[in-house]
Design brief:
The chain is mainly α. It has two domains: about 40-235 and about 350-370, Citrate Synthase, domain 1 (Orthogonal Bundle); about 245-340, Cytochrome P450-Terp, domain 2 (Cytochrome p450-Terp, domain 2, Orthogonal Bundle), CATH 1.10.230. Helices cover about 55% and strands about 5% of the residues. A three-stranded antiparallel sheet has the order 1-2-3. Helix 3 (about 80-90) crosses helix 6 (about 135-160), helix 9 (about 210-220) crosses helix 16 (about 350-370) and helix 10 packs across helix 16 (about 350-370). The protein binds carboxymethyl coenzyme *A. Carboxymethyl coenzyme *A binds near residues 242 and 277.
Length: about 400
């Protein structure tokens, strides 16, 4: 059959047709450019990650999460006055409407916090329903509202499911310190807040990954920003994406002791089972974020006493690198973040919601960029199904 020929009616004789024969089909869109972006850059061979041209190492060392969000969304580092204004706006919008809290009271306590967060993000659209995507003030207000309120949503659900009262955000604390304060119901040390802030920076943006792609696809329909973020949260939740950090701890718990590592890794390889926290579509060396997170984990554990999983994680990294390094499989961002969060007293099922709060910086930057040169996403498909089948009456099926 020639390309472009009218499909035959007999399904048995119908070959698969690519409507664009010059464009090969790439499962998972691997290597296919889907957008043009100025927001971040990754070099998977060199292990390089830059936000708006600045290496992430320099930002984790010197910046704050709120400043990084400003950089990602508006494209340049803020002046002191711009940063003060932005921080002050975010600081003063941390509270949730009582109706959102009432809605959360009806959520099942055993539900996953990512589902709660997705529902709450989408619900913001009910309360702030005005949509003015070409108004810079509307964009700024939506950015501020989402950045300010999402940590409170995560913490409120966490407390409510334990039967505790919701906690009032503290305007006197920095973004990271207030988030930790709300999660743990106690003010964190300066050191803990600094490390948590660096974790948020490291998770803030990572080019056109699955959830960011989701955000851009949703944004391209010109829907409201709350729908954009809700769709991205839903995409981040899966174990192949943001959900991996939670599974890393389950895996370390399951392995238990260092003498079981080799057998575990060999068994995973033999069963073609993925080892959580390893591998990346882009990085073929150790993820630069994992390098920094490991350093931060080390600092934290040295200051606050060791961590029962850290030595196990180091040995697991050595074994996996030894067995799978040839394939470019090394630790990714999710491998060490869970260890740090656990040490900070955060329950494992909140790791991915925290990732979502951090990734808001990137999602909102991509939302804004998509609006700037929008065309609705509408790829094509290669139809592999039947044609021209007769409708079978119910009684004959
Ligand atoms: N453990 C063992 N083998 C692996 C792993 C792993 N974690 N990751 C990839 N491989 C192997 C895979 O079996 C395959 O081998 P072969 O060529 O012999 O069939 C090869 O490497 C390529 O794997 P793939 O699944 O085709 O690679 P991908 O680019 O589609 O997947 C990934 C990337 C991140 C989904 C995958 O590495 C994975 O599932 N890792 C575990 C989950 C994880 O840690 N996810 C967090 C990703 S980073 C943060 C984020 O994006 O949210």
């Amino acid at each position: 059959m020639q390309v472009g020929e009218v499909p035959v009616q007999n399904p048995a004789q119908n070959p698969v047709q690519n409507p664009m024969p010059d464009v090969p089909f790439k499962p998972g869109l691997e290597g296919v450019p889907a957008v043009q972006s100025k927001i971040s850059h990754v070099d998977g061979q060199l292990g390089l990650l830059e936000y708006r041209g600045i290496p992430v190492e320099a930002l984790a060392e010197n910046s704050s999460f709120v400043e990084v969000c400003y950089l990602l969304i508006w494209g340049t580092l803020p002046t002191q006055t711009e940063l003060d204004d932005f921080e002050s706006e975010v600081r003063h919008h941390r509270r949730l409407k009582y109706r959102i809290r009432d809605m959360m009271k009806c959520f099942p306590e055993r539900g996953h916090p990512m589902d709660a967060l997705q529902s709450c993000a989408a619900a913001l659209g009910l309360f702030y329903s005005r949509r003015a995507l070409d108004d810079p003030e509307y964009i700024r207000a939506a950015v501020v509202r989402l950045l300010a309120k999402m940590p409170t949503m995560v913490a409120t659900f966490s407390l409510m499911r334990k039967g505790h009262d919701w906690v009032m955000p503290r305007d006197d604390l920095s973004y990271a310190a207030n988030f930790l304060y709300m999660l743990n119901e106690e003010e964190p040390s300066i050191e803990a807040a600094r490390i948590f802030d660096a974790c948020l920076i490291l998770h803030a943006e990572h080019t056109i990954n699955a959830s960011t792609f989701s955000a851009r696809v949703t944004a391209s329909t010109l829907t409201d920003p709350y729908g954009v973020v809700a769709s991205a949260v839903g995409t981040l939740a899966g174990p192949l994406h943001g959900g991996a950090n939670e599974e890393v701890l389950e895996m370390l718990e399951y392995i238990g002791t260092a003498d079981r590592i080799e057998a575990y890794v060999d068994q995973c390889i033999a069963n073609r089972q993925k080892i959580m926290g390893f591998g990346h579509r882009v990085y073929k060396v150790k993820d630069p974020r994992a390098v920094i997170l490991q350093k931060l984990a080390c600092e934290l554990f040295e200051k606050q006493g060791g961590d029962r999983f850290y030595d196990l994680a180091i040995k697991l990294e050595e074994t996996v690198s030894d067995r799978l390094g040839g394939k470019g499989i090394y630790p990714n961002v999710d491998f060490y973040s869970g260890l740090i969060y656990q040490h900070l007293g955060i329950p494992a099922d909140l790791f991915t919601p925290i990732f979502a709060v951090a990734r808001l910086g990137g999602w909102l930057a991509h939302w804004k960029e998509q609006l700037g040169e929008n065309r609705i996403f509408r790829p094509t498909q290669i139809y592999t199904g039947h044609h021209g089948l007769a409708y079978e009456p119910m009684a004959e099926r």
